[in-house]
Amino acid sequence: MTVDTVSSPTAESDANNKVMSQGALHGIKELDLSRVLAGPSCTQVLADLGAEVIKIERPSVGDETRHWAPPKFSDDTSAYYATINRNKKSLTVDINTPAGQTIIKQLIADSDIVVENFKVGGLKKYGLDYDSLKQDNPRLIYASLTGFGQTGPDAKRPGYDYIIQGLSGLMSITGPRDGEPHKVGVAVVDLFAGLQLTIGIQAALLARQNTGLGQYVDVALLDSALAMLANVGMNHLASNDVPPRLGNQHPNIVPYQVFSGQGEAHFILACGNDSQFAKLCDVLAVDWHTDSRFTTNPQRVINRQLLCSELAKKFSEKPRSYWLEVLDEAGIPSGAIHNVAEALAMPQAQAREMIVDFAAQGSPVRALGNPIKLSASPVTYRTPPPQLSEHTDSTLADLGYDSDMIAKLKADGIV
After folding, report:
1. CATH match for 9-228+354-411 among 3.30.70.100, 3.40.50.10540, 3.30.830.10, 3.40.630.30
2. Chosen CATH of 256-337 out of 3.30.1540.10, 1.25.40.340, 3.40.190.10, 3.40.50.1700
3. How many CB atoms neighbour CB 152 within 10 A?
């Protein structure tokens, strides 16, 4: 990104219009040295917001998620890779070679952001660590996403979403009360950490407007997972009790869980306060809200099993469709439990453009949309996930490499 300069009102208006049409982060350049899920999920958000993102991949192999198939699209793009790599350019570089390191340093010299998820200290031997790079580019924002962070006794350990879900306590509160601990169905720690990294980078960009200097952003999977414990973690800090696994029940609110209608069709009931519980009793034609065991939420939490067993009997008398209709009419929060196909087919999901089709760009890829909706500078879906090394020639040409030089780098296996 160029150094800020004083602009005329007309030039400023033109610049604003360009940002509005090309994204809030238009003009920001980013080098993506991350791979798999957590780091690339962050860089895709920034790319959706308009940043120019160059993804560095290994020659011939690429990001390993390119090979995590089936399923894959007809152009051989794996669904996993397509999840978090749209709006990016693919440049293949062998980072182990001096020539490859030179290419990366040339790109970083003109970049605003570097994102990496190497092991702690892993890039220092290549001269690609923050302390080395900030000497030539003091405006650089260098963001690292690791399993355990840059400090502490476990800093050098590798980090994996599944293992972090276990270490953090998240699995201990997920799954049936009497069954084994369960992981969440998607790599939620990776994705949450990716969002935390995105927030940190954007905060650093704002800070740079005031100081003119970049900074180091350090996000860890473990830290992110511990923060995800939220009210359950706070319950422990307030009481010193170890939070139990409650299956689909809520630790602090009753009734707030899954029930089955007639025929075992599942739905969620979420009574968040005493008023809603009283309305529920009206719907069920019972007077439990006047029973001292159930009048207030703390009393319902204490008598959870008794109340919920009675509710289960009531709900089994009629189909789920009936209960969802009458609960909705009464203003009581409830909802069906959809499978993935049903969820993506919801009219609401369609109206919110949560499925992106890249057919207009000649790609068979369909992807999940970005949930961020900006009124003046909305996210854009400019390009589908790139083919491996798709932008190597054009990126090197922009750096001043001619065709002979590029051919030599390819022959040597450097790009």
Report:
1. 3.40.50.10540
2. 3.30.1540.10
3. 13
3-17 pLDDT, tens digit each: 343 344 555 555 555
Strands 29-33 and 256-260: unpaired
For residue 100, count other CB atoms closer than 10 A to its CB: 21
**Cα–Cα dist 104/126, whole Å:** 10
* Virtual torsion, Cα 243, 248, 224, 197, nearest 10 deg: -160
pLDDT in tens, 314-364: 999 999 999 999 999 999 999 999 999 999 999 999 999 999 999 999 999
Region of 127 on the Ramachandran plot (φ > 0 left; ψ -120 to 50 alpha; else beta): left
Has 190 been annotated as catalytic?
A: yes
pTM of this structure = 0.89
Instruction: List the catalytic residue out of 63, 94, 190, 218.
Output: 190
∠ at Cα 340 (339, 342), nearest 5°?
A: 70
Residue with tokens 């790009």: 415
Question: What's the rounded Cα separation, in Å, for the pair 206 and 196?
Answer: 15
Helix, strand, coil proportions of the chain in percent (round to 5)? 40, 15, 45
* Inter-residue contact 365 to 358 (CB < 8 Å): yes
